[in-house]
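Section 5.1 Outputs to date
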Amino acid sequence: MKRYRELVNEAAKSFAELGIEEAENDAKELMMFLMNWDYTHYTLCIDDESTKEAVDKYAELVEKRKTRIPVQLIIGEAPFYGRQFKVTRDTLIPRFDTEILVEEVISYIKKKYPSGEARVLDMCTGTGCIAITIDQEVATKKVVAADISEKALEVARENARKNGSRAELIRTDLFEGINEEFDVLVSNPPYIPTKVIDTLQPEVKNNDPHLALDGGEDGLDIYRRIIQGINSKNVLSAGGAVFFEIGYDQGEAVSGLLEKAGFSKVRVIKDLAGLDRALAAEKI
């Protein structure tokens, strides 16, 4: 039988030929999942001779990935900020870019609310990765995670239990079910322009829920609704802050919406590639 390394190399080659990004890493992750290996075991066992059972099961996983199903959906979970989160087709897959947003929120809370009195609302929570991470990483008075999708909330509830989070999860269409005040609002809302969705990679357009992708004609619909809701329902305390994840070219547009609505200290946060990735502002 072939050695495990040969199987991984063959899978990576087949992925690369299909234009799959991170081909080598995907092949490795699938093998680790199949064999229940951590990185240490992978290093120690990768040159062992495989078994027929392992060859057959790995081939099944590889074929799934070749249909452009993301590795995270194949194995059923994704890493985020040092934790594992369950994912399904009812949720967006947590991505590293969102860790930039979360890092900004955590830093802000630690500086402004060092005694743990901050009340935090995560709007459009999906897997709950943002709310759960904030709840676990910094002292707060309360963390509420909201989403319109009950199926997404089912996943978020399981993630909260698995990660020992006390975050409260509620189903609501933005602020319809919100009747209290918060000091921090954070959101990774749908922000892809409708016409762009069909041009996205198959892993995204064929597997992520369009409800969590589609931001309307210009990608800004949900930002407008959130900003309008903050002001009309007074859900953000005076001096409170809002944090958004944004598209790589949306910094100026979303900044303009916030400034027009009377927010101050608006700033765009760049990712490691120097692209717009998040945005922060404070309510006057």
